[in-house]
Amino acid sequence: MERKIQTRRAFLAKSILASGGVLLSSQIVACNRLDDVLGDGDDGEQTPRFLHGVGSFDPTATAVIIWTRFTPTTDEVSDFIQINWQVATDADFTEVVKEGMQYASAENDFTIVQDVTGLASNGKYYYRFVQPDRNMASVTGETITLPEPGAAVDSLKLAVCSCSNYPAGLFNAYDAMAKSDADIIIHLGDYIYEYGIGEYGTNENTVPLNREHDPATEILTLEDYRLRYRQYRTDEGLQLAHQKKPFMVVWDDHEITNDAYKDGAQNHDESEGDYQARLERAIKVHSEYLPVRTDAEGVIYRNFEYGNLANLVFLDTRIVGRDKQLSFTDYFNTDGSFDFNGCAAALGDPNQRLLGDEQLAWTANAIGSSTAKWQVLGQQVLMGRMTVPAELLILIGQVAGGDNSPETLTALQNLIVELSTLKARALAGDPTLTPEEQARLAAQVPYNLDAWDGYFVEREQLFGLLNGKNTVVLAGDTHNAWNNVLTDLNGNNVGMEFACPSVTSPGFEGIFGTDPATIAGIEQAFTLLIDGLQYFDAKQRGYILMEFSQGAATANYQFIDTIADSGYTAFVGNTVSYSV
Questions:
Q1: Angle at 256 between CA 79 and CA 317, to 5 degrees
Q2: Can you give the three-state secondary structure of 36-68, one letter per residue?
Q3: How far apart are CA 114 and CA 119, in angstroms?
Q4: pTM for this prediction
Q5: Dihedral (C-alpha) 367, 370, 375, 379: value to the nearest 10 degrees?
Q6: Surface-to-core class of residue 360, CB atoms within 10 Å of its CB (0-12 exposed, 13-18 middle, 19+ buried)
Q7: Which of 293, 305, 376, 571 has its CA 20 to 30 A from that of 208?
Q8: Which string of b and e fits 214-245 if b means at least 16 CB within 10 Å?
Q9: CB of 190 closer than 8 Å to CB of 252
Q10: CB count, 10 Å around CB of 529?
Q11: How far apart are CA 459 and CA 382, in angstroms?
Q12: Where do the DSSP E strands lie in 146-204?
């Protein structure tokens, strides 16, 4: 379904980063002299201006959005600067098929977003941007158009990623995606993080790698958000990924602020101003740097038909329809016991919505009208039913809250062994399990109320829409790698979920430490105790290379051995195939 580009005309930038700053020192490679590209030009010294590279977004069978940013000097921040663009079928631009001109200005932070239409389907294209007065050109970007909806297609490869925290380490996973044979990069959110220097993601490598957040404080203003995107787009791995592959994106919470929902967020209080105003600023800047093909402000859900093979359906499980998350703390009694009945009633409340009525109706149409072999849902949070014994979750919460004492970690390991042993006996049909032991296993609570587990009723409604479809769900958010078999409350198979590891954000090792025995115990316990969970990696960074054919969907969990050094090695940690 083709939609128009999301646009928002609002505030002017209060200031624009001048030439000569940190951006100029970090990405000179991101710009070529125009005379190097077209020949004939001024040989005098010039400052590179296309410092944030290029990118392409949301290709259809006949169109693709191309992007760049021109970096102005302090004398140019009030100017409208002409930027020419070209699209060709060859890297030398001898066969230019589309070209045009826009003006970069402070209104959109000197970004250029151009929807190039009238292209041939299933094609490979090259594009670039030129500033003729200053004799400068961007690097050459590469992109594609999709096969016509319904056209016979044998294969599709998607690089699926999320959660790139700048101070946590180098974006080597993006570099690996750029060099992979993926057709499209799917980014499931947390493209940036809102925190200040020394906050979430900071580690022993942050300062040596010169990756402290800019600005230094939590981002709140329009210029704050713009500075943060500019900083992220100086990373060489991320620039290369945008240069080599088209992106399809959805936002998650950190593009706005932690644990966001439609009316507020965990990481927002009254001292930080009006939440809706902050949300509008964040979405405006998102549209400047990560344009999407939608027809309404603040709407990011949309879909793309890739021939007869896949219907790529992108959902917003974070902002547009999400009610405030439930909290376990509301269901502890004064004596410390847990109110299971009250919690269950809240979870079963039909008014607790994640998508909302309008988006759910749109989803029903997008899926119901598709005849593609695969329905591929790209969205932010885990959809699989992930419940664990309450006593385990309480102890995990204690550790996550900062209690990493040897006594607590030992208690956690012992509890994992106990519960895993009980579950193994239960699965084996052991008749000697006592009522008390059975009760320990039966006292289940959701692992994460910020995910679909906190929105039970609407998940069942969505599962109903997927009945009879070959469904693959893609998820991000958790920083860890997962594979879930999706079933409804009646036990009917709905599809398969593949959740990607983070690009750099810390996984469970950020909570429990790096002790291999502790992490292995968590992985083993979750896989055994959670029905439907087939695979779980809690410690490695990377992405998923999803391969679709007419007969199978195969997830290759691609991991990166280091984010502390650019000399990384990529490897496949696991492969899961879902055949139909």
A1: 125
A2: HHHCCCCCCCCCCCCCCCEEEECCCCCCEEEEE
A3: 13
A4: 0.91
A5: -40
A6: middle
A7: 571
A8: bbeebbbbbbbbbbbbbbbbbbbbbbbbbbbb
A9: yes
A10: 22
A11: 11
A12: 156-161, 184-187
Contact between 481 and 501 under an 8 Å Cβ cutoff? The reply is yes
Q: Please choose, from the candidates 60, 126, 119, 59, the residue with its C-alpha nearest in 3D space to the C-alpha of residue 89.
A: 126
203 and 238 Cβ atoms separated by less than 8 Å: no
Residue type, 281: R
C-alpha distances out from residue 394 to 402, 472, 515, 528, Å: 13, 31, 21, 18
User: Distance between CA 395 and CA 401 in Å, rounded?
Assistant: 10
Q: How many residues are given for the chain?
A: 580
Per residue, what are the HEC states of 211-253?
Answer: CCCCCCCCCCCHHHHHHHHHHHCCCHHHHHHHHHCEEEECCCC
> Can you read off the two tokens belonging to residue 458?
């609407």
Question: How many Å apart are CA 102 and CA 100, to the nearest integer?
Answer: 7
Residue 446 contacts residue 384 (beta carbons within 8 Å): no
Give the C-alpha separation, 507 to 526, whole Å: 14
E strands present in 117-238: 124-131, 136-138, 141-144, 156-161, 184-187
Question: Encoding tokens for residue 425?
Answer: 């006996």
Q: Rounded distance, CA 145 to CA 120, Å?
A: 7
Tell me the one-letter amino acid at 4.
Answer: K
**Rounded CA gap, 468 and 503, in Å?**
34
**Any idea what DSSP says for residue 341?**
H
The domains located in the chain, with CATH, are 1-146 (2.60.40.380), 155-386+447-580 (3.60.21.70)
With contact defined as beta carbons under 8 Å apart, do 542 and 558 qualify? yes
Beta-bridge mates of residue 482:
499, 536
Determine the angle formed by the axes of helices 275-289 and 222-232, rounding to 10 degrees: 40
List the end-to-end C-alpha distance of the chain, in Å, as a whole number.
Answer: 25
Residues with Cβ < 8 Å from 559, sequence gap 6 or more?
A: 501, 537, 540, 541, 542, 570, 571, 572, 573
Q: What string of DSSP letters covers 280-298? A: HHHHHHHHHHS----SSTT
Per residue in 21-69, pLDDT tens? 233 323 323 333 333 333 333 434 456 799 999 999 999 999 999 999 9
Q: Helices marked H in 313-384 — which ranges?
A: 340-347, 357-368
The residues of the chain scoring below 70 in pLDDT are 1-47
